[in-house]
Amino acid sequence: MSSEIGIVRGTALYIGALLGPGLLLLPGLAAHQAGPASIVAWVVLLGASALFAIVFAGLGVRHPSAGGVWGYATAGLGDRAGRAVAWCFLAGVITGAPIVCVIGGNYVAELTGGGVRVAATTAALLLVGALGVIARGVRTSATVQFGLVALLLVVVVGAVASAAPASAAANWTPFAPHGWSAVGRAAATLMLAFVGWEAIAPLTTRFAHPRRQLPVVIAIAFVATAVVYLALGVVTVAALGPRAGTEVPLAALLTLGLGDAGTAVAAVGAVVLTVGAVLAYMSGAAGLARALRRDPAGAGAQQDTLPLWLGLAILASGAVLIVPLATGAIDLATLVNVPTTFFLVVYLGCTAAGWRLLGGTPKVCAAAAFATVGVVLAFCGAALIPAALVTVAAAGRRKRPAPLPIG
Fold first, then answer.
1. Whose CB among 95, 326, 330, 384 lies 3.0–4.6 Å from 339's, allowing a Cys bridge?
2. Segments forming the whole domain that contains residue 161
3. Is residue 401 assigned to a domain?
4. Which H or E run includes 116?
5. pLDDT tens digits along 310-341
6. What is the Cα–Cα distance from 145 to 134, expressed in whole angstroms?
7. pTM for this entry
């Protein structure tokens, strides 16, 4: 079949889902929260990502589902839990799209010398522009997505390579200036960089030989992303020292090697990556939203067109999240925890389903991953409230038709 994918393309797609524009922001936020000890959070979450890789590989091989996380949770936990997981995924996209736009806005503000209001205004323009593009049924093609991933890798590798010579041992002391509990808060923030296994789950049905190909693809994707994550986390602390807590860490790293031109390179890359990531997330959310709602009016419409209610929800989320940021009423680290918490609930449901559906080592990994997600959730604070409300509301909805076929 022409839609089937092999190891090379599958690996590229998985790496593309796991690496996102969050890398342009999160290393700095984590360093601000926990100082050099943020590297502990990186290591812990890399371990969690390895567990997720094993669990999703097991689910993909044994229970391939075109419905992705919806299908997994429904198969393992039942219809109500499946709907709750699916709606939390949508809520993560709805609240995450404005945050991703803020990343691009921060880099523009750094380039122009503007403050938080410039960042928020740029974020709002990027969000409205992306919604306008996808409302016309336009999405990023697979080739464009590959290009965006390549651009991100070039920016990250360039930043690490240019800044590494500036590393100093003195930048690692004091190691935990805000106490060890700050590591938990940093982990909750960094978790947004580790989502992606759930977004790529529907691809499991497109492998020609999933039992042979999927474990190889997932292993390569995990190793590649782990190297990138760890290198960036280490160099951010080692090279920037007291300045590691910036909201534009890639710009700061590139400036060490390229001077003022580094800020411009980072800003251009950040804007391009922001738009591409938002379009990709919205396209994926649109398909799941139509499946959940079984929207008859949308049955014959272009599948990549965003349902009106979803577009309005993203706009409302942008107003609720971006405006307080512009006025200084809330900080960016708190905002990041909102979509992160929704995605953590998705992982909680999928790992619980994995424990029910899998056996042997994958079952043990699912239990360990479930426990890890639970611990990280405990550090999400007030962001747990909207996640709990969406979970309860979604689980209490009347029964809908079963998700896309499993198996």
1. 95
2. 7-395
3. no
4. helix 116-135
5. 889 999 999 998 888 888 788 888 888 899 99
6. 15
7. 0.85
